[in-house]
Design goal:
Blueprint (H helix, E strand, L loop, with lengths): L9 H9 L14 E3 L15 E4 L9 E4 L5 E5 L8 E5 L7 E2 L1 H12 L4 E6 L12 H16 L1 H4 L6 E6 L1 H12 L20 E5 L12 H8 L5 H6 L13 E6 L8 H12 L4 E6 L19 H11 L7
Parallel strand pairs: 5-7, 5-8, 8-9, 9-10, 10-11
Antiparallel strand pairs: 1-4, 2-3, 3-6, 4-7
Helix pairs in contact: 3-5
Length: about 325
């Protein structure tokens, strides 16, 4: 993690909006791609090429994985009747790939039916040689929050109702934004970076959290920190150790029979939020395994999670009760 000065939050956001920031009035288009950075990030490997791998055995249901991400971006999924709430969706993939469909577009389409404007995040993968290393996906997450907040007025969105939804390894990305939202994972680039990267609310599904030895998802830690990380690195990148009372309300959901990511990850993060006085909601289902998204939940009780999430968003004032 880079050792730069910490940024302020709400005051900068209010000042920016009062100054007329984001007043271009350019409408969003469905499935529009929005680059996070004006140019390809410095230190991107010159030989890295974006690759989409189809993993589905079905002719009618895609299961694509994206790697070689050199131009981090957001892809927009518009509701027919927007309600002003927006959510950045970060699909999982063990920090080795970004799962585009079952934890990306399918989730975005489901949220769009509730009036939420969804942005699917394609973030850089830390093991692909980027100069920022472990900070690359975290910088992309912060930048995505700031870009959506900067352009919220232009898109008819409420800049105080921008959430983050992270799955699996991207749950670690989301938990980092919850706990360390004001930590400078990259140098200021433009006016967007004067805005807070703190989500107004967050949801983490079957998340990777800790980088400590006990309870770690070894594959995600190796992809993020490499083989044999130092004790200092494990601590720095374990967001449960950095929660403060400025963290936003958070929704956590997982299955007790998860064979990949120990349930202790989400439980430990919930406990850290609770101890810091931050309201949080934790759902642990008996069955579901890992990576169920929506399609993998079948007829199990965990399939109700989208309704649980949207009900929670209404209760905490982050979505209108329609």
């Amino acid at each position: 993690m880079a050792g730069l000065t910490r940024r302020t939050g709400g005051a900068l956001l209010v000042a920016f909006l009062l100054a007329g920031g984001g007043a271009m009035a350019e409408p969003l288009m469905h499935e529009q791609r929005i680059d996070l950075w004006p140019d390809r990030p410095t230190g991107t490997p010159s030989d890295l090429q974006q690759t989409i791998t189809e993993r589905s055995e079905s002719l009618f249901r895609a299961d694509r994985a994206l790697s070689g991400i050199v131009d981090p971006s957001l892809t927009v999924f518009l509701p027919e009747v927007p309600n002003g709430t927006s959510v950045i969706i970060a699909p999982g993939g063990s920090y080795r790939r970004v799962v585009l469909d079952k934890e990306g577009s399918e989730i975005a389409a489901t949220l769009a039916r509730t009036g939420v404007t969804a942005f699917v995040l394609a973030y850089r993968l830390p093991g692909e040689g980027h100069a920022e290393g472990a900070d690359a996906p975290l910088a992309d997450g912060q930048r995505a929050m700031r870009i959506v907040r900067q352009r919220a007025g232009e898109w008819g969105l409420d800049p105080a109702r921008v959430g983050f939804l992270g799955f699996s390894a991207a749950g670690h990305l989301g938990a980092t934004l919850v706990a360390q939202h004001d930590y400078p994972f990259y140098d200021r680039l433009d006016a967007a970076d004067d805005l807070p990267a703190r989500p107004d609310f967050a949801a983490l599904l079957y998340p990777v959290i800790t980088m400590q030895d006990k309870g770690v998802h070894e594959g995600s830690r190796t992809a993020l920190l490499g083989e044999g990380p130092t004790a200092e690195a494990k601590e720095a990148y374990s967001p449960e150790l950095h929660v403060t009372d400025t963290s936003p309300e958070t929704f956590l959901l997982l299955a007790d029979d998860d064979p990949s990511v120990p349930p202790a990850n989400a439980i430990r993060f919930y406990s850290a939020l609770h101890d810091a006085g931050v309201k949080a909601e934790l759902h642990v289902f008996r069955d579901g395994g890992h990576g169920f998204g929506i399609r993998g939940a079948d007829d199990l009780p965990v399939a109700r999670w989208p309704a649980l999430l949207t009900d929670w968003m209404v209760r905490i004032g982050m979505m209108p009760n329609t």
